[in-house]
Amino acid sequence: MGPPKQRALLALLSTHRGTVVGPSQIIDGLWGPVAPNTAINGVHTYVAGLRRALDPTRRGRESGGVLLSVAGGYELRLPLESVDAPQFVQQFTEARRLTAQGHSDAAFDMLGKALGLWRGDALAGVPGPFAALERSRLREMRFSAAEDWIAGMIAAGRSEEAIVVTSEAVAQEPLREKLRWLLMLALYRSGRQAHALQAYGEARCHLRDELGIEPGSELQELHARILAGTVDDSAVRRQIASAGPALVQTPSQAGGERAVLTRMGLCPRQLPPRAHMFTGREAELEQVRALLDQASPVRGRATPIVAIDGRPGVGKSALAFELAHELAPRFPDGQLYADLGGTGERPNHPFHALGRLLESLGVNRADLPVDLDGRAMLYRSLLHEKQMMVVLDDAVDMEQIGPLIPQASACLIVTSRRPQRGLVARYGAHRIGLKPLLPAPAAQLLGKLLGGEGARGRNAAVHRLAELCGYLPLSIRITAAALLEASYASPERLAALYEDPVTRLDLLTVVGDDGMSLRASLAASYRGLPGETAHLFRLLGRVGLEEIGVPESSQLLGVHSSEVAAQLELLADLGLLERTGAGVYRFDDLTRVFAVECAEEEWPARRTPLLRRAAESAPVDDELRTG
């Protein structure tokens, strides 16, 4: 049947057997949104190649009787029995109809006949967005049919046979909870209660490791019934009844693709939970509401993108999750989430991030494209015209974000420590440069977290604690947790301890949770600095200048001022310095303490007098520059 793209064309035409497929539809199916300018020539070439293979007796420029050129495109004329996929769909549909009418024996026989048509994976080795989507659609229907067939075996008392079939199916689809349910039931019906409980344990471990979730209510209920020895025939009947009508539409049917995607689990709800006691960001929330009102995906405008950046602990992720939860009803096709790990030691590569997102969209792991462009193309094709929200947390740069930008109907929220100016310049993103909370909302947040009793009558201490936390939500939440945990603590006592910046930085941590530690948060930004910039950060910390400018920093490093200016801007972008004017910066108290700690790890204590002289504006000598 020729080269891969030609086989992909045959798959597309076969699925739309008896209907006219236009050139633009073929191009979308074979190449997706990044089709080359020569794609239409490729279509003509592949059509000619298929005609030679399918109708070798055709002469010259004759249209032939199998693959016809008709007004608007091409039509493949074949009887139903010539293509196994439509036969399977038809028989599966008939089995569901028979089940609904109460003809369970006939339905069981029809399911076996339908499943007997399968020979390995559908469209194996066929490239392109259409083939990937069709492969996933048919695979989902295959396992739905297998689940119904297995349930029929168990109901007929053939549990031993069902164990073999279900075990094979679970090995191929380990995340399908219904298969796990059936395996547990079959084991229990075969007198293997311990193995049934072991199967539940395996399911629970797998779901936790892969998705971070607990088993669903049906699995948990069956587990409890097995423990209690109260499993009865009604359990099987409920499970069969819960199957619901199969979605057997082909993509050519109106609304069929969307229905298939819904059945495949393409309405994911992956958003992390909202922050407890969120407050103080009303202006930012209102800005995004207005943005989406102006760029409604329903009207087909450009993808609305919100880029949130800010210093460590300022609450970027909390704002993103609050936004996403509030706006989720505007995106009924689902919400996707990816932690890009930008501040970790190994940021998430877009190739791997796309793999997880595509699996969330129903693409089998074995069907994932093996190159970054292929994954990005399939991702955008699956999200085409879908009203979905995508949240990318803790991003690094445009190289990481670019392949993950969805199609226009979706909304994208990105958080990053660095301003993503490329998103603004290329895609018109709405940037929110997040600052610490204002004093009143910061104190209000701390008071709410402490509860009525913990804050009543202690306004001055609460306001002082909020100030000593730098009005950062992360520091305020850690402080509230410390006060709530220690019954003997009080805002006044803790505020007195916080007056010393070194002690304060030591206390602003939750033991055993690196995500709730201001020092760890600062360290994550520090680790990502280039060598020279990290060296400048340490020098500035030890010198202790109240105001930091380009001339002083240039003198410390002994390099050209333009180079130093770029390094200072990077430190400010990452929240390790504060901008106080044009080319003027400063440390906040806690970041200065952290910078000194980094310097002390690098330099011996004997250089302290030398640095003190530098802080008193003495000329910087070569020993300090190279220390």
Topology:
Blueprint: H1 4-15, E1 20-21, H2 23-30, H3 39-54, E2 67-70, E3 73-76, H4 84-100, H5 104-115, H6 129-155, H7 159-172, H8 177-189, H9 193-211, H10 217-228, H11 233-241, H12 256-263, H13 282-294, E4 305-310, H14 316-327, E5 335-339, H15 350-360, H16 372-383, E6 389-395, H17 398-401, E7 411-416, H18 421-427, E8 430-434, H19 439-455, H20 459-468, H21 473-485, H22 491-498, H23 501-507, E9 509-510, E10 513-517, H24 518-527, H25 531-543, E11 548-549, H26 550-557, H27 561-573, E12 578-581, E13 584-586, H28 589-602, H29 608-615, H30 622-626
Parallel strand pairs: 4-7, 4-8, 5-6, 6-7
Antiparallel strand pairs: 1-3, 2-3, 9-10, 11-13, 12-13
Helix pairs in contact: 1-3, 4-5, 5-6, 6-7, 6-8, 6-11, 7-8, 8-9, 8-10, 9-10, 15-16, 19-20, 19-21, 20-22, 23-28, 25-27, 25-28, 26-27
Keywords:
single chain; 627 residues; alpha/beta; 5-stranded parallel beta sheet; 3-stranded antiparallel beta sheet; 30 helices; 56% helix; disordered C terminus
- Enumerate how many helices there are, as a single number: 30
Instruction: Assign an overall shape.
Output: globular
Gap from first CA to last CA: 69 Å
The overall pLDDT, averaged over residues, is 82
Task: Give the class from helix and strand content and strand pairing.
Answer: alpha/beta
Q: What Rg is obtained from the alpha carbons, in whole angstroms?
A: 31 Å
Please state how the strands of the largest beta sheet are arranged side by side: 5-6-7-4-8
* Number of distinct beta strands: 13
Main pleated-sheet profile: 5 strands, parallel
Q: How large is the share of residues in beta strands? A: 5-15%
Low-confidence stretches: 240-266, 605-611, 617-627
Measured as a percent range, the helix fraction is 55-70%
